[in-house]
Design a protein that fits this description.
The complex is a heterodimer of chains A (315) and B (313).
Chain A: H1 2-39, E1 46-47, H2 57-62, E2 65-66, H3 78-111, H4 115-126, H5 133-144, H6 150-159, H7 172-197, H8 201-209, H9 214-239, H10 246-251, H11 260-263, H12 266-277, H13 280-308
Antiparallel strand pairs in A: 1-2
Chain B: H1 2-6, H2 8-17, H3 23-51, H4 55-61, H5 73-80, H6 83-115, H7 122-134, H8 139-149, H9 156-160, H10 167-180, H11 183-191, H12 196-207, H13 209-224, H14 228-233, H15 242-263, H16 265-272, H17 277-309
Helix pairs in contact in B: 3-17, 5-17, 6-10, 6-13, 10-17, 11-12, 13-17, 15-16, 15-17
Classes of the chains: A mainly alpha (315), B mainly alpha (313).
């Protein structure tokens, strides 16, 4: 008996060892590039002194003064009220709009009888998802360029004057919304569509035999099936409500300063604060708050969902 | 009734229409979806047209779908840009290929033990990667550590390493293992005396090829579209990827356009030699073309991957 057990146990240890070696590359990466910077959060409480040759990077931290919450004072300026409003406002609007449009499109797509056309639409709608925001900013520029843009020329031809798009903040909430929906709708539509195609057709047939109209079938068969996926995507999006898409807010408005009141979000604020003033403490503090709020949001969203419907929660 | 029964074709058509929306309703759906789908590709077609427009047509009627005159000047200019362009093209390809290979290898190696129910530290490592999805150190600490401790500045390493791991891809890959590899297969291989690595490489990998293709495509797209890392870590023009070159062209053009009056003669000279609008549009075409060409082939894999990844992990 013992003779049989020994090689088995040794094999178990060997298995654990070899499998653990597979984890090593990613683990090292995670520790260095994701976990080590978490200790850097301490910089948001320091009056950061730049590293010099005499005092290279980690040591300069010891010589920086502890200033408590002073770096968080930026929160009480008009600028940061603006940027927080922008970040949360845009995200909330786009989560709701994106969800409504994508679910509607997916349901519409699933009702088409010409499958070839449906596939073609899907292919075309998915395309923008694969482009970078830099490229998208050029697409937009072709329409809004102050001298040659198509829209600008059309306005000039029609009324003699044209809007100076890149200097007029009033239009940008709409423009950014269009860009975001344009780029991301295809992706979420494909997600929901694949969930709909996974639904057993016999449920629809049974409903139809019972006299349910298409609209009733959608309400009582399709939507309940989509609910878990909608909930999961909602949790993930709510968790990211304080994170903005840097590329969208940076390159699409061409980094135009007059537009900052409506295009500044937390991510661009952190980057600009760091590059223009070099204020490490304050920009770290802003980033830390961002992560903290995101963490609290995702935990709260998941907790609420778990209480309401344990099967749909993320973890 | 007997008429319908006698004509099987008619019967089938009738059955097909059963529990389906009416024809006018379907026509409306086609219109809405078709219109939106068109809007998704029109800007790209527009940029292609602009890149083939003659400069004086643009200064006369602006950007238009029907330029007054066509020309290949933009592409001639782009090709005469020479080194800067080809160097950036090379950089983008290098970063994409090397980054994707390493990244996919790491992802598969990490996801495989996470799928193994009999692996002891499964819970710990799952948490280790998942936690980074919901909390992080933030941009500035990451930047300072990467730059000061890990030596990422003005090298390819800075453009590749920060994007190597994506917890989302790990979850997608693990789900692929779970849905396509029966656990008995591994037990059978172990009984036959196959080592862990040879089981993975010889037996498991051929089964999950579609999953690997998905991850590889998503990663490659990420690298191809990347410019933020360059903005952070790189100032050496020789290392610019294509996306960043494009961004910088725009920035220079705007800077000169705004300040031309102050710079004087040198500025006027700079503006004359500035990349023209059409030329910048043709660089956009150069960037999007590889994606647009490969897109119809890889779309299937990406859809498969996203569908799998969205399943509760």
């Amino acid at each position: 008996m013992t003779r049989l057990q020994t090689p088995r146990r040794r094999q178990g240890a060997g298995k654990t060892f070899w499998l653990t070696t597979m984890m090593l590359p990613v683990t090292v990466w995670l520790l260095l590039i994701r976990y080590l910077p978490m200790f850097g959060i301490v910089m948001s409480f320091l009056d950061y002194r730049l590293p010099t040759r005499k005092m290279p990077f980690p040591r300069n931290l010891l010589h920086s003064d502890w200033v408590g919450l002073k770096n968080f004072r930026f929160l009480f300026t008009q600028e940061s009220v603006n940027m927080i409003r922008n970040t949360i406002g845009y995200n909330a609007l786009w989560i709701v709009l994106g969800l409504l449009i994508a679910v509607t499109f997916a349901i519409m797509m699933s009702e088409l009888t010409r499958k070839f056309l449906a596939k073609t639409y899907q292919t075309m709608m998915f395309f923008p998802y694969f482009l970078s925001w830099v490229v998208v900013s050029y697409f937009l520029f072709a329409f809004l360029d102050p001298t040659n843009g198509m829209l600008v020329r059309a306005q000039k031809a029609a009324s003699g004057t044209a809007v100076d798009w890149y200097n007029t903040p009033a239009y940008w909430p709409l423009i950014l919304t269009i860009c975001s929906i344009w780029k991301n709708t295809g992706y979420s539509t494909v997600l929901y569509l694949s969930a709909i195609t996974g639904i057993d057709r016999s449920q629809y047939e049974a409903a139809a035999v019972d006299g349910a109209t298409k609209w009733q079938q959608t309400l009582h068969v399709t939507l309940p099936h989509l609910r878990p996926m909608i909930v999961i995507l909602l949790i993930m999006n709510v968790g990211k409500i304080f994170n903005a898409d840097f590329g969208l807010f940076w390159s699409v408005p061409m980094n135009s300063a007059p537009l900052y009141p409506v295009t500044q979000v937390v991510d661009t604020y952190v980057y600009r604060a760091y590059t223009s003033t070099g204020n490490v403490g304050m920009s770290t503090a802003a980033g830390f708050l961002q992560n903290l709020v995101g963490f609290v949001c995702i935990m709260a969203a998941n907790g609420i969902v778990r209480r309401l419907d344990p099967d749909s929660s993320l973890f | 009734m007997s008429n319908v029964a006698a004509n099987p074709k008619l019967k089938r058509m009738k059955a097909q229409r059963l529990n389906q929306i009416s024809r006018p309703a379907e026509a409306v759906l086609h219109m809405i979806l078709g219109l939106f789908a068109l809007c998704c590709i029109i800007p790209f077609l527009f940029v292609i047209v602009i890149s083939f427009s003659a400069e004086d047509s643009i200064s006369r009627i602006g950007y238009s779908f029907l330029p007054a005159a066509w020309s290949l000047d933009a592409y001639r200019q782009v090709l005469s840009l020479g080194d800067a362009l080809w160097r950036s093209y090379f950089n983008s390809f290098l970063i994409t290929v090397v980054g994707t290979l390493i990244s996919v290898a790491m992802c598969v190696l990490y996801a495989y033990p996470l799928y193994r129910k009999d692996y002891r530290f499964r819970g710990f490592f799952t948490f280790l990667s998942f936690f980074t999805m919901i909390f992080g150190g933030g941009l500035i600490p990451t930047y300072i550590i990467c730059k000061n401790l890990l030596g990422m500045s003005n090298n390819y390493y800075a453009l590749i390493v920060p994007m190597l791991v994506s917890p989302f891809h790990i979850i997608v890959m693990r789900t692929f293992f779970q849905s396509s590899v029966p656990f008995d297969l591994i037990e059978a291989a172990t009984i036959d005396g196959s080592g862990e690595y040879s089981t993975l490489i010889r037996i498991i990998l051929p089964i999950v090829k579609p999953g690997i293709a998905t991850i590889a495509l998503l990663t490659a797209l990420g690298y191809w579209n990347e410019w933020f890392l360059c903005l952070l870590y790189v100032t050496d023009r020789n290392l610019y990827p294509l996306q960043y070159l494009l961004m910088e062209m725009q920035r220079n053009a705007e800077f000169l356009a705004r300040n031309s009056s102050m710079i004087g003669a040198a500025g006027a000279e700079a503006i004359r030699t500035l990349p023209s609008q059409t030329m910048r549009m043709s660089v956009v075409v150069f960037i999007v073309l590889p994606i647009a060409c490969a897109y119809p082939f890889f779309q299937r894999y990406v859809v498969a991957g996203l569908t799998v990844g969205s399943v509760k992990g």
